[in-house]
């Protein structure tokens, strides 16, 4: 068994008019939780479905657990756990029946009851799938993905559309799986999810990896730990960005419509200096905010767009 | 049996049984239909005709006696005015008026079929009463045995129609539904074998088939005396082969569509012509000779013909060989083509 769980080289995939994935390279070592972070339509799902052997690439190589889809499909299916975006499991079956059905497909796997307990659906064992909440359905989908005792788990947008509590429950589940020394590859467009769960993150935009590192290193690459956002009163905002960069502690300044964003190494220097600057130029604040830098800010600094509206 | 095949087959059952509408349409509906048709087309006992006799003369009394002797005639005495009213309102079909000892007048509406029948029966009775001797000796034999009634014709047709509907819907619908919900793609992401997935439909279909055939054939035998003259085992074999052919047709129809609407359209396109042409409710021989080769090649025509040959004529499988060959061909062609074109994801 190799130390590389997933290796992708020169991957290309186009649909009739769109280049979904273009020359993508990735390598994920065994035991890592790896995240593909990017806006909707960035090519994350296409990439992960090619890795899952559900889509064929136009060109490029994909090696999963040291095997290839063309030659080792049967063996690979036994070793992978997969959760797809938007799968609707049969509503007429109960939770236990659904997990038992998926268990029956695998030669080896975990006990049905054990998996149901793991995803905290014990009380819903006999409930029909149709009666479950969104979060419970998603945990059931994960249960079906892990019941074959996979070495590598693929999760495509596992927490999209879930309430905060359900998201946290799923995060715990994924972290636990990862703690057992197995490999997880997930896609998400939530930066907090990537930051919290992933050992390394590839930021994907328009079918390409535009940055790849640990979340901490990616944020550090901004050269600043804080982001200050503000808007001004009145229509006239003659301020130019270069003047803002002169403010103490500021490493970068951006203007997005009427809103300004400064990245700062030290908030305690930047804020008084900013206020003094505005005072000097007879400008009045409409709004002032600040937060610690996140992967979202990394994405913004790389693409000039936000994850949400990219 | 492998675990996965058993679990998949159980899943098919659960999905079916937990859908009460599906249960009704596939199991109870053919029976409801056979009850309706059985009542509408039941054979009535020979009807009696009502006749009024007018007058109190010796001739009238003689006619009355003669008419009372005759079966099939219910006779009453009435005044001329009462008799006229009864005839106008349709309560009697004929007035017998003995005008003189040697003249009897029949008064009736010659456009009413029952009046014309009454005229013939009454005249027959009156003439015999006066001593007519028929020159020709005759005897009668009534043919009312089960097997030649409409209900006997229609039950095998309903059985064939059920095999078609349940085969095409029962296999086509769940597959398209699973594709629409991306469940098919999810299943393909597991080591599940495609053969077992399709096999689970065959198994569950066969089980329901037994229920479906047993219920309809059993019910119509008990309620209407519809015969099963052929071997039950051979009847089961015809049903099984028919179910396989319609199941394969259902799989072919479900091979590509991504939506239920798209699949329903195709299913109706396939089934509608057969409902009309394949001799479910009336014989397919009613259609022009030019289109007969097409009609005879349809799977439902072959199934219906084979079922009728078995149930009504007691024919063996050797007699329905051509029909079985047509059904088997449909199965093989649909199944092979379906496997080549089916969209698994």
Mean pLDDT across the residues of chain A is 89
Indicate the CATH architecture of the largest domain in chain A.
Answer: 3-Layer(aba) Sandwich
Indicate the radius of gyration of chain A in whole angstroms.
23 Å
Oligomer: heterodimer
Corresponding CATH superfamily of the largest domain in chain A: P-loop containing nucleotide triphosphate hydrolases
CATH topology value of the largest domain in chain A: Rossmann fold
Order of helices and strands of chain A: EEEHEHEHHHEHEHEEHEHEEHEH
Query: Which class of the largest domain in chain A in CATH terms?
Result: Alpha Beta
**Pair of chains with the largest interface and how many residues each contributes:** A-B, 27 and 24 residues
SSE sequence of chain B, one letter per element: HHEHEHEEHHHHHHHHH
Shape of chain A: elongated
- What's the helical proportion of residues of chain A? 25-40%
N- and C-termini, Cα separation of chain B: 26 Å
Distance between the termini of chain A: 40 Å
